[in-house]
Inverse folding.
């Protein structure tokens, strides 16, 4: 790296800018590649069914803090976040591979604890662990999971099918995982100052579970099938509602009006936000890690699911020229922004 | 991790012992999973063709040293090592995903340099880059590549089909990558003491390329097809000949007699070994990273390939009870041992 002339900081481009720069010139060469970079998963055609392929990387100190994240939970979550990408394609996950890089601070028992969470998630979601790589690391723990799933070609839902007039819906509630993280961070800071202090976590079991042991939503995919609808576009909420809406808008060439008052949030999320003097909406818009499904449906299909309490209509897709906005309580319109990660240090 | 009672060091089990402990209780649940953990790649059945799925993880300081490994070469190699696993199944690689974790020392241009190598390997081998994840790291660079390939079910070659009497063959020559690494390490040590010293690399272009920009062997797979043979078992040489032979023996329940005098090595490999006062055979047996294909064929099929100078018969598979041995020049028999990684620190 000593010979470099230019040094553009990655933070100048941001995550999405960097990915765009690295992948914009890719020309697909294989017949079996139906969809490459740019959705929750790639789509491949190997016969009767389509194969859906996705992957994620979790690094210690960035995605998790082993001071308060139990290894079993971490293993579980590392699988769940990948399955979520497959459900976001309206597909069924089937197999995963797990790569881990371990520093010498890990004992065999610690690795087994991590794997017990991986196996538990495989058990719960009916997934086969079919391979992987374990290796040394000079520093912390890194976990990379790849997942394969399947779907009939016509069942696949991309980020690109939303139309003007479609209803924007979300499953479950949002912001809980982020507020759970804030609580864990706060108690960890207290602990660092005085390690006799017991963490104050009572009454926040829901948001702690959202952070530490999130679930993904096969039931949502099953519900679509049962009531006979197919979303026009879909994505999972890993980076926060705001980013994900922007992905659907960009993918589908539409705009969006997101109704602030409709964004579903649990009482614990709101209570924690109040305690920490944060606007709870921020946790939903920019917090991320909810692993709920955000999707659009035609107004006709919306009629079929509107009575299910697990779904909330939170906005409407509009013409691309109108842009993507949050409509606040007083009627003011605030442009939505996509946030990826940025280097903190 | 503070509550742990037992602390078994990973080095007590070794890589293969750890993997065995983590995966021995897996029960496959999906019809589409034909082969899980335990070969170069998993095998999945999604229709007319089988999908072959493999993954690898490379970490800075363990798998590569950025003091002397150019980023473009690193990108290239990180793809090649994965493709090699697919060819080792007698299958064709088609798609990859690439996950990278980056510390803030990397500029956009440095990441582009890495990706230029990734793209070059995709171009050369006809592979589509279809997805991945880029993220921050608090420390060094981590690269995780996953690869999908395809094969007709009957064409797949596993580690498990070798029979007593089969001939053990290898493509190309061995030990070069390891001797290239020794040379680079030596010159790096010199440079650390005196950074005005120019590295002495002349006359060693072949072993340097074997280490820095290895290729994989689609031509071997093509040759099998052309001459109409199918190996009875196959594996790629990533950890060293000794380990890979043990994998074939264990997978196929056979023993092996490896003829020391037949192990193919390039003159540069031997010369460098002499210069460093190392037995060159050690680089072939335990060096690894050659990414050649090690396979067994029936004696009849061996007749069809024995005139191809790219293949060398190096031994014979024998009854399991006889074990796996290196037959040295004087006729003495030395038991082969499988080496995986062990934690260095």
């Amino acid at each position: 790296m000593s010979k470099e002339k230019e040094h553009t900081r990655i933070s100048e481009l941001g995550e999405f800018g960097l990915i765009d720069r690295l992948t914009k010139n890719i020309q697909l060469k294989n017949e079996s590649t139906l969809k490459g970079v740019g959705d929750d998963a790639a789509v491949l055609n190997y016969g009767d069914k389509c194969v859906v392929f996705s992957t994620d990387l979790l690094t210690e100190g960035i995605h998790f803090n082993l001071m308060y994240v139990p290894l079993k939970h971490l293993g579980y979550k590392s699988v769940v976040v990948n399955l979520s990408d497959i459900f976001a394609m309206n597909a069924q996950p089937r197999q995963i591979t797990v790569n881990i890089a371990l520093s010498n601070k890990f004992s065999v028992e610690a690795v087994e604890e991590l794997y017990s969470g991986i196996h538990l998630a495989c058990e719960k979601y009916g997934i086969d662990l079919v391979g992987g790589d374990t290796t040394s690391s000079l520093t912390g723990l890194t976990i990379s999971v790849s997942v394969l799933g399947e779907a009939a070609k016509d069942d696949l839902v991309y980020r690109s099918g939303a139309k003007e007039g479609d209803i924007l819906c979300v499953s479950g509630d949002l912001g809980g995982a982020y507020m759970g993280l804030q609580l864990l961070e706060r108690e960890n800071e207290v602990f660092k100052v005085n390690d006799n202090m017991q963490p104050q976590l009572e009454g926040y079991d829901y948001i702690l579970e959202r952070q530490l042991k999130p679930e993904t939503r096969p039931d949502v995919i099953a519900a679509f099938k049962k009531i006979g609808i197919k979303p026009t576009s879909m994505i999972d909420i890993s980076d926060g509602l705001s980013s994900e809406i922007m992905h659907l808008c960009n993918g589908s060439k539409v705009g969006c009006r997101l109704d602030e008052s409709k964004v579903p949030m649990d009482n614990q999320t709101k209570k924690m936000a109040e305690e920490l003097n944060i606007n709870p909406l921020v946790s939903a818009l920019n917090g991320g890690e909810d692993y709920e499904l955000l999707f659009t449906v035609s107004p006709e299909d919306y009629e079929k699911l509107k009575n299910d309490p697990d779904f909330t209509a939170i906005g409407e897709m509009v013409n691309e020229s109108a842009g993507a906005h949050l409509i606040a309580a007083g009627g003011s319109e605030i442009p939505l922004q996509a946030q990826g990660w940025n280097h903190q240090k």
Summary: The longest strand of chain A covers residues 92-102.
